[in-house]
Amino acid sequence: ASLLLALLLPQLLAPVASGSESEPDAASPPCPQTADQPPPPCDRLPFACLSCRVNATAGCRLGAAVPAVPCEPLPDVNCTGDRGPLPRTVVCRYCHQLPPELYTCDKRATCKVRDPVFRHYETNCTAALNASCIGRRSFRRMLRCDWSGGYKWSVSMWCTALLGGFGLDRFYLGQWREGLGKLFSFGGFGVWSLVDAILIAVGYISPIDESVYAP
C-alpha cells in the first residue's frame, strides 16, 4: 500500500502551471500596415506608429512635456486624412526611462529564482503603443526572476499538516526522493514532519523547479 501511494501521489498532486510567458495585448492593436485592416485617422494613431522630431535644444528636459512636437506616420503605416505634420505633446525621456507600467517585457521561465548568480536575466522590452518617448521603442533590461510553476505555499503547508509523515508535502513540491524517504520511515516518527513544516513555513524548502510559490 505504501508503494502504491508513493507511485500515485506525484500524478495526483501535480500543480497546474501558471502562464509565465507574456501575451500580446488584445486591447491594443498594432499599427495598421495592410489594406485588410480599416485605416484609422492619422491624427488618432498611437505614438508607436509615429515618428516625432523632438528638438533637444527647445526645452527638452528630462521628464518635461514638450507641446506641439511635429509628428508624422511611419512610412509603412496606413491611415486616412492629413499625414502631417501632426502636433503632439511628447514627454522628454528615452524609452528605456519609461516607468514599468508603460512597457512590457518578454518573460522567461528558464532562470533560477534561488540562484545567486542567475537570479536576474536580460530580456527585451517594448514601450506601450501610446507611450511617448524618444529613441528606440525596444530596449534591453535586467529583470528579477519571479516565474511560478504553479506550486502554492498554502497547499504545501496543508500537505505537511495532514500527511506530512507520509511525505505528501515533498511529493507535491516535486521532491519525490525526499518524499520516499519520509514515506518509508513514517516521517522520522514525526521529527521530519515537524522540521519540514518549519522549513516550508519560512520558505527554505521550495519547489523542485526553483520557481516562486504561486499566489
From TrEMBL:
Instruction: Describe the location of the TM2 domain by residue ranges.
Output: 155-198
Q: What segments bear the compositional bias annotation Pro residues?
A: 27-38
Q: Which residues form the signal peptide?
A: 1-19
Renumbered to this chain, region (Disordered) spans 18-38
Topology versus the membrane: Multi-pass membrane protein
Family per similarity comment: Belongs to the TM2 family.
Would you tell me the protein name for this molecule? TM2 domain-containing protein
Source organism = Macrostomum lignano
